Every structure is written in structure tokens, then in C-alpha cells.
Amino acid sequence: EVQVVESGGGLVQPGRSLRLSCAASGFTFGDYGMHWVRQAPGKGLEWVSGISWDSGTIGYADSVKGRFTISRDNAKKSLYLQLNSLRPEDTALYYCTKGGGATTVTAFDNWGQGTLVTVSS
Amino acid sequence: QSVLTQPPSVSGAPGQRVTISCTGSSSNIGAGYDVHWYQQLPGTAPKLLIDGNNNRPSGVPDRFSGSKSGTSASLAITGLQADDEGDYYCQSFDSTLSTLFGGGTKLTVL
To answer: What is the three-class DSSP state of A26?
Structure first.
């Protein structure tokens, strides 16, 4: 069974940092692009960042560019998101999602349950 | 405000047919990028409903169908059921290969 499980969320003060992790199982992790998508409380989905199978293609939403960094470790079957200079508007449930192919331009065919990031003083 | 525009809400009675539109531009949907659709039931993670404009992943009932034309796409749901109630999102891409989501449509089954 394909599974992605997020961890690392929590309450953090504005300006501080956090690192999210996503552990994958049930598929050949290194063959697929991966993404982070977030959802603020009561709001819609917002794509945050995506990375291709070989880390050769990486993209970010304008709202997080320069502050967030996506990375992956295919040997560990893990995806990461480093969140720096956090702002209250970054408060959201962060989902790890599996792409449908090797690139970043695919549907997201499996989603985790999300990890909650709350930015507040 | 999302680059892909969806109606905030739609509604229908059980058994009826509803459609949800997703309007983009020549920079995204109109540039030939695929449109995908997701269903998010209350309190759950999103689920892929339509892949590549009109393909249903395994396990998705054929009551759900997608179409795309020009700079727009649509999701149709026939034989509406109470447990279809939730939020529906379209997804596509732009020329920078960034992912775009629509603002979401809340489906209410009357």
C-alpha cells in the first residue's frame, strides 16, 4: 500500500524555523516527483513546492520562495521541507503528496494526512 | 485570489447532475497543460478524482467525469449522492511549471 506520512509540525514563533519530513513506503520513491501542499484553516489548497525524482527540477510558490527549501533523500525514501523566517500566514496543515510520474508536472495521486504548522507568538 | 477560477459553491438534489467549472487562461490550461480534479470530504485529505483531464483513477465511480476545452475545464457528477458532499479542486500548471490550484468549490447535496 502506498503511504506517505508527514511529521515535524508544531507551534513556532514568527521568524523561527521548522523542518518537516515525509516518510514514504509502498512504492519506489526514487521514481517519482514529490510535492508539499498546504491548507490554511478554513481555506483552499495552496501548492508550496515540488521536486522531481532526481532533484533536478525544483519549484516554489512565490509566497515561500527564498524562505522554504525542499529536498529529498531517495536512499531514505524521505522528503523534507525546511521552513525559515516563518510568518503567521504560513500557519496551515502541510500535506506531503506523491506525484504521478518522475517530473513535477503531474497529478498528485497519494496524499498524507498532513502535519500542522502554527506560527504565533 | 486563485489563477484558476472555480465557483465558490454548487448544489443539487440526490440523483441530479452538477458541474463544476475551472477557468484559466492561455498561460495555463489554454497552453495545453492537463487539468486534474480532487475531492476533499470533510475532515479528510484530498483525493485524486480525475487525472489528465478525463481519466478516472482506479476505484473512482464513473459518476465522475472530466472535460477540457480551450482555457477551461469541467467536472461533472451524475447521480448525486449525500456522501459526495465536500470540496472540489481543480489543478493545472503554468509556463514556469508551477502547480496551480483553483480556489475550490463546495458541493452541497440538498
So the answer is: coil
CA distances, B60 to each of A45, A69, B11, B50, B88 (Å): 21, 34, 21, 8, 14
Q: How many CB pairs under 8 A join A and B?
A: 58
Whether chain A has a CB inside 8 Å of the CB on B88: the answer is no
The DSSP bridge partners found for residue A47 are A37
pLDDT, one tens digit per residue, over B58-108 is 999 999 999 999 999 999 999 999 999 999 999 999 988 899 999 999 999
Is B48 in Cβ contact with A109 (below 8 Å)?
A: yes
Give the span between the Cα atoms of A73 and A48, in whole angstroms: 19
Residue showing cell 476533499: B40
In whole angstroms, what is the distance from residue A22 CA to residue A6 CA? 4
CA distance B97 to chain A (A): 6
CB B13 within 8 A of CB B79: no
What pLDDT is attached to residue B38?
98
pLDDT in tens, chain A (121 residues): 999 999 999 999 999 999 999 999 999 999 999 999 999 999 999 999 999 999 999 999 999 999 999 999 999 999 999 999 999 999 999 999 999 888 888 999 999 999 999 999 9
Query: Is the Cβ of B36 closer than 8 Å to some Cβ of chain A?
Result: yes
Task: Give the E-state strand segments of A17-103 in sequence order.
Answer: 18-25, 34-39, 45-51, 58-60, 68-73, 78-83, 92-99
Beta strands B86-93; B105-109: pairing state: antiparallel
Residue from the list A44, A61, A104 with its beta carbon closest to the beta carbon of B103 = A44
